[in-house]
Recover the amino acids of this structure.
């Protein structure tokens, strides 16, 4: 299958949103997703429309195109003054996972980071997301466990 990677484009919004929702359902299960309110779902999605222009402009977001259809995306951005790029989310449509698309997206991000003198790429991964943990390890990331602290108001 012919898979190409290109920068995120204005016309990609609807497809990005579809893949975002599909991978959230895959992770949480259709039932759990269906029981959430719309605002709870919105909090989980990275493809909020109001943030799309910002992602378009930041220069570190890419899509994978397979047989003319956008099949995956990586949303990443530079953290100011750190020379670090943070992967906000990487997702491949469930029916096309395990075909190397995710690694191609990650490779494109690496190239862009090198061009921009970025020194590291980092990401936060839920410990129960074994597929993603394995994916990042295969991509060459060092995995370090952390404790998350949250103050609820
Ligand atoms: C994590 C994710 C992006 C990985 O994308 P992917 O396209 O499935 O990843 P790849 O195909 O590049 O690599 C995954 C596996 O496929 C294998 N693979 C690569 N090319 C292959 C091919 N041509 N044929 C068969 N397998 C292949 C890789 O070796 C790897 O195998 P492994 O399981 O032994 O490590 C994807 O699983 C996903 O969208 N998950 C849901 C969203 C998510 O959790 N995102 C991360 C948030 S932190």
């Amino acid at each position: 299958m012919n898979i190409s990677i290109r920068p995120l484009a204005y016309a990609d919004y609807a497809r990005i949103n579809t893949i975002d929702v599909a991978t959230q359902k895959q992770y949480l299960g259709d039932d759990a997703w269906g029981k959430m309110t719309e605002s709870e779902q919105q909090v989980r999605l990275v493809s909020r429309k109001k943030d799309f222009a910002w992602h378009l402009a930041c220069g570190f977001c890419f899509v994978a195109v397979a047989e003319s259809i956008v099949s995956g995306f990586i949303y990443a951005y530079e953290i100011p003054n750190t020379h670090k790029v943070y992967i906000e989310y990487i997702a491949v449509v469930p029916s096309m996972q395990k075909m190397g698309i995710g690694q191609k997206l990650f490779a494109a991000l690496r190239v862009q980071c090198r061009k921009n003198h970025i020194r590291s790429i980092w990401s936060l991964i839920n410990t129960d997301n074994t597929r993603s943990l394995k994916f990042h390890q295969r991509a060459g990331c060092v995995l370090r466990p952390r404790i998350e602290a949250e103050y609820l108001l």
